[in-house]
Design brief:
With about 100 residues, the chain is α+β, with helices and mostly antiparallel strands. The protein is built from two helices and three strands; from the N terminus they run ββαβα.
């Protein structure tokens, strides 16, 4: 499982994102970005921050929501690499009330 890193380089094939009110840095495999749940989250980030935000990729959800979603994606990725068993409707969209500027 990929986790949080304080600073430093990100391993090849991974991406650091910022999550939650405290903008916690979390490192994820790039392949997760192709999963339907992450795609929904990326669309929410686009709607919230736009395409031209500066700095790291910020995701508009709480840390707890992100960790639950990451666990579902990891479970789905390990159980079947060819099809996604967890569909976007199985996880409520991230709350906009917790978005920070």
């Amino acid at each position: 499982m990929h986790g949080e890193e304080k600073r430093g380089k990100v391993k090849k094939g991974c991406l650091a994102v910022r999550v939650g009110e405290d903008q916690r840095r979390v490192v994820i495999p790039i392949v997760y970005l192709y999963h339907p749940l992450f795609r929904r989250l990326l669309e929410a980030a686009r709607d919230t921050y736009g395409y031209h935000s500066s700095g790291p990729l910020r995701l508009p959800c709480s840390v707890d929501e992100f960790l639950r979603m990451r666990a579902l994606v990891e479970q789905d990725t390990h159980s079947s690499s060819s099809s996604h068993r967890v569909h976007a409707g199985q996880l409520a969209p991230c709350s906009r009330a917790e978005v920070t500027s």
